[in-house]
């Protein structure tokens, strides 16, 4: 009896992607396939090109060669706002929020933009009610409802990171890129952040850059190792941690234990 296998669908696919800044080659033919619905991490040493990779995917940098596809359609050469509207949202290493607006207003701006609504005094009450209800729903999902009326700049660091994750949700994107979402957090804050990410990415596709290996191995289905602009290996966290090439290039001897 032949066992049927479920076909895998690519949510995000990079094919021979290169990037050069003048004579300096940063990306050297990157091939990466992120399956729909999986949580996928990119790890690698400092200077490996992880942030550059995210900038290429999200359209902040133009690729020098190769192709990037989102849900089967090429997004190569599209500006960031077009890529976002195509279903991809990202966070940044440095928290990117509106510090002088309230937490609620930060999230409502994203919801308004997704619905193509410009905030003004003459919006229909029913339409604004729906916008506000959706904003409250996202507040609840990221655990910030008690802080709704506080200025975003007054939040703790971990709360600001949660707000930024909430802002990626306002776009309605089904592919989310998180750039070091737990960087600078305490162990307790990291544990809460992991549970938040697990919850809000349920049913979505996650690609993340993360240095904390305990976060990567507890949260992600697969891991890709980026070393000096090339993907060295892609596999499950367990197999990556046991891969001698990966240990030598990045994880070190501690990975063996």
TrEMBL record:
Keyword field:
ATP-binding, Nucleotide-binding, Transport
Tell me which InterPro entries the record gives: AAA+_ATPase (IPR003593), ABC_AA/LPS_Transport (IPR051120), ABC_transporter-like_ATP-bd (IPR003439), BCA_ABC_TP_C (IPR032823), P-loop_NTPase (IPR027417)
- Domain ABC transporter per the UniProt entry, residue ranges: 12-253
Q: Which GO terms describe its cellular component?
A: plasma membrane
Keyword Nucleotide-binding assigned to the entry: answer is yes
Among SUPFAM superfamilies, the record links this protein to: P-loop containing nucleoside triphosphate hydrolases (SSF52540)
Molecular function GO terms recorded: ATP binding; ATP hydrolysis activity
Any Pfam family the entry gives: BCA_ABC_TP_C
Q: Which PANTHER family match?
A: ABC TRANSPORTER ATP-BINDING PROTEIN, CONSERVED COMPONENT OF ABC TRANSPORTER FOR NATURAL AMINO ACIDS-RELATED
* Protein name in UniProt: Branched-chain amino acid transport system ATP-binding protein
Provenance organism? Roseibium marinum
């Amino acid at each position: 009896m032949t066992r049927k296998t479920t076909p895998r669908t690519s949510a995000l696919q990079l094919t021979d992607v290169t990037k050069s800044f003048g004579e300096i080659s940063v990306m050297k033919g990157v091939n990466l396939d992120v399956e729909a619905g999986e949580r996928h991490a990119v790890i690698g040493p400092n200077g490996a090109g992880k942030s550059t990779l995210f900038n290429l995917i999200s359209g902040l940098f133009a690729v020098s060669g190769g192709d990037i596809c989102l849900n089967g359609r090429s997004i190569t050469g599209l500006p960031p706002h077009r890529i976002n509207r195509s279903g991809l949202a990202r966070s940044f290493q440095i928290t990117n929020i509106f510090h002088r607006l309230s937490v609620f207003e930060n999230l409502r701006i994203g919801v308004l933009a997704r619905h193509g609504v410009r905030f003004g005094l003459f919006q229909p009450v029913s339409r604004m009610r729906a916008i506000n209800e959706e904003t409250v729903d996202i507040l609840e999902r990221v655990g910030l409802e008690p802080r709704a009326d506080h200025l975003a700049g007054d939040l703790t660091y971990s709360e600001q990171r949660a707000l930024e994750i909430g802002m990626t949700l306002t776009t309605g994107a089904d592919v989310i890129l998180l750039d070091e979402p737990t960087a600078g957090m305490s162990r307790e804050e990291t544990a809460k952040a992991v549970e938040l990410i697990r919850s809000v990415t349920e049913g979505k596709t996650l690609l993340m850059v993360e240095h904390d290996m305990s976060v990567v191995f507890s949260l992600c289905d697969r891991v890709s190792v980026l070393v000096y602009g090339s993907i060295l290996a892609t596999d499950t966290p367990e197999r990556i941690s046991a891969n001698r090439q990966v240990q030598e290039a990045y994880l070190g001897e501690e990975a063996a234990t």
